[in-house]
Amino acid sequence: MSWRNQTDDDTGPQTLRFLPAREPGPQLRFAGNSNKWTNVSISEMYRYIGLLFYMAMVKLPSIRDYWRQSSIFTVPFPATVMPRDRYRTISWNVHMSHPDADKENDRKRGTAEHDRLFRVKPLMETIRHACKTIYHPRRNLAVDERMVACKANTGMTQYMKAKPTKWGFKLFVLADSSNGYTMDFSVYTGKNNFPTGHGLSYDAVTSLLDSNVLGSGYHVYMDNFYTSPKLLKDLLTMKFGACGTYRDNRKNCPRNAENSLSKKSARGSIRWIRDGPLVFVKWMDTREVSVCSTIHSAYTGDTVQRRVKSQGTWRTKTFPCPAPVSAYNQHMGGVDLSDQLLQYYSAQHKTMKWYRKIFLHFLDIAATNTFIVHKELYGNLSHKEFMEQLIAELCGVSQKAAPKRTSSDHVPVPGADLISDARKVATAGRRICVHCKAVHVSCCCFGCPLSLLDFSLDCFLVLCITHCCLGGVEDLSSVPTTS
Fold first, then answer.
1. Is the pLDDT of residue 242 over 90?
2. Is 226 helix (H, G, I), strand (E, B) or coil?
3. What is the pTM of this model?
């Protein structure tokens, strides 16, 4: 026998069949699942949603902290509404579509029949219908994107560097410019769901504007992602006026026209071109601003004030401003206002399920829209007060909880001045303990009924501690007095 090297061939032994007597792994068998499922009632679902909004107002690092006991950071309210395990069980099993139908849709993955929003579509359609039903918008509307934070690998998440929330689901939103009410929305799934052949921006706007629901004569404001001459002309055919900033490289936008603005143009300079119902306006502010409109004239005498530096001194100066630019600045912020209201008390938190992120956003839309409607009707509650009342009603509790009794409510204090003349200790009509009278001491406890009886001083202290600190004496008539 001799040693061989790695270049020599070797024939290994035949592999043995692996036939364990039992399945490898832990052999423990548990008696049952501690979180046994029971059906959720309507009132219990209301309490669950109420807790979601409560957690939006009272922020803690993790869900389990809301039920943590024996800690200086204990929050007592959630445990009075629902046990922690029940809350977690409901969270794990929240679905907006039937699980069997989900599996059938998943089998179509990779085909044209597969619906990426199938898991959220039933609730999404319900929320959209409710948004359109309970409120009708004023004349000025705004269209813009909204991001729902999520980094799940679903194929639908987007990256938008210009937004505060960079990664997440992108929604196209139609909002009332006057108050931020979300009128309608659609979720971008990474492909065009409305293939008209005119591009995503065109389809996003036209899908949100339904003349059968809204009526006609509305003014729609949008940014340069959406604005194109064809879109504005087609909206005018649908009897919707439109105004928005535009990009010079868009098809049918005026380029290389004579007498255009240059980098050396003075601040406040205005140029415009009218093409039938369209007016294209350029205005020099700190940089060039380009706006297209089917609503406005080019210039109607509007002005704006800007701070400028002249001879080393900052001063406020007035500049002319085109009418489309003034209107755009006034009405375009509808979606931004809506986003701002949503973020104040958002129910969003970390979750492993992507569709739960959408579910929580639907709750935010519902709560914010409800607050806006309540403010329009009554206007007597702030946003914080409204959310507090909403949580209390969903959880079936009263906002005015009974205050806890503290030791400061019953503090022994002198009942009379400590003077040497015992005849002047008692007030008129008051009975004094004979022992206290003898030692020239009179004391009582604020709010304690024992102060009306006669005891020796040591008896008084024992009974007062029993009443004030250990729960009280039910029947004081059975306690003997020294008189």
1. yes
2. coil
3. 0.73
Half-sphere exposure of residue 370: CA atoms within 13 angstroms, side-chain side: 13
Cβ of 238: how many Cβ atoms within 10 Å?
A: 14
Q: What is the pLDDT of residue 468?
A: 47
The set of residues, in sequence order, having a beta carbon less than 8 Å from that of 321 and lying 6+ positions away, is 268, 283, 302, 303, 304
**Reduced to 3 states, what is the DSSP secondary structure of residue 231?**
helix
Distance CA(372)–CA(179), nearest Å, equals: 7
* 442-448 CB contacts, 8 Å cutoff, 24+ apart: 442/414, 442/415, 442/416, 442/418, 443/412, 443/413, 443/414, 443/415, 444/412, 444/413, 444/415, 445/410, 445/411, 445/412, 445/413, 446/409, 446/410, 446/411, 446/413, 447/409, 447/410, 448/410
CA 367, 368, 372 angle in degrees (round to 5)? 120
Please, where are the H alpha helices in 58-146? 77-81, 84-93, 99-106, 121-133
Higher pLDDT, 474 or 191: 191
How many CA atoms lie within 13 Å of 113's alpha carbon, on the beta-carbon side?
Answer: 6
**Percent of the chain clearing pLDDT 70 (strictly above):** 80
pLDDT for position 158: 84
Amino acid residing at 51: L
Q: Token pair of 80, please?
A: 């009075």
